[in-house]
Specification:
By secondary structure, this protein is an alpha/beta fold. 53% of the residues lie in helices and 12% in strands.
């Protein structure tokens, strides 16, 4: 059981950067890739420079860590090692990709970031959130996303999408339903704690409806507004 919730507001030194840092979060199979594609298209049409990346991964070192973390053959990996490996990949991504780009005026769109650790290893694995927060503040140099786009989806629907997509599941996707339910509940709890940073979308609806809501609630408000 998760022992504590992060207290107080997180400092965000990235607010002084000339570009936005946007993360896309949610349980596996929620549809993050589709929204990242949509935002990429809108940014390109608007002439706003951007890059896309992912977690774990996004760098040469990070991709090697990703292989180890998601390989079903790594079933014996313990939870502490999992936390540290995700954090190692994130540290490399932060220094090599995220900070240089947002400082230079290039938007960064990432498929998962720090909130994934709170949801998966905190709520899912049951690790103390305050301890995880301390590790992540050090890992990221306290540079967190300007906005976390959370796609909320029923676990059965999400897992069904994964199965129909390729029939194969990685090490995390192979966890039981109870684990994924805890992760979903964790994401929603995080969004409730920081409503100004999270944008929660109902990802169970038809794709075109999710994209339309994303456009109206994010693009028109945070970009054109």
């Amino acid at each position: 059981m998760t022992k504590a919730k992060p207290q107080g507001k997180t400092k965000h030194p990235r607010l002084s950067f000339p570009a936005k840092f946007i993360s896309f979060e949610g349980i596996d199979g929620c549809g993050k890739s589709t929204l990242i594609e949509s935002l990429s298209s809108w940014l390109e049409k608007a002439g706003i420079p951007f890059i896309r990346t992912r977690e774990p991964g996004g760098t040469r070192i990070g991709e090697k860590i990703r292989e180890l973390l998601l390989d079903p053959g790594s079933a014996e990996m313990n939870g502490r090692a999992e936390v540290l490996l995700y954090s190692a990949s994130r540290a490399q991504l932060t220094d090599e990709v995220i900070i240089p780009n947002i400082k230079n005026g290039t938007w960064v769109l990432t498929d998962r970031y720090v909130d994934a650790t709170f949801a998966y290893q905190g709520f899912g694995r049951g690790f103390d959130l305050e301890k995880l927060k301390a590790i992540q503040e050090w890992t990221t140099k306290d540079v967190w996303p300007d906005k976390a786009i959370l796609l909320d989806c029923d676990v059965e629907i999400a897992l069904g999408r994964i199965t129909s997509r390729n029939g194969k599941k990685d090490r995390i996707e192979q966890e039981n339903r109870i684990f994924h339910e805890k992760v979903r509940e964790g994401y929603l709890a995080l969004a409730e704690m920081e409503p100004e940073r999270f944008l929660v979308l109902d990802a169970e609806r038809p794709l075109e409806n999710v994209i339309e809501e994303f456009y109206n609630r994010f693009w028109l408000v945070d970009v054109e507004g």
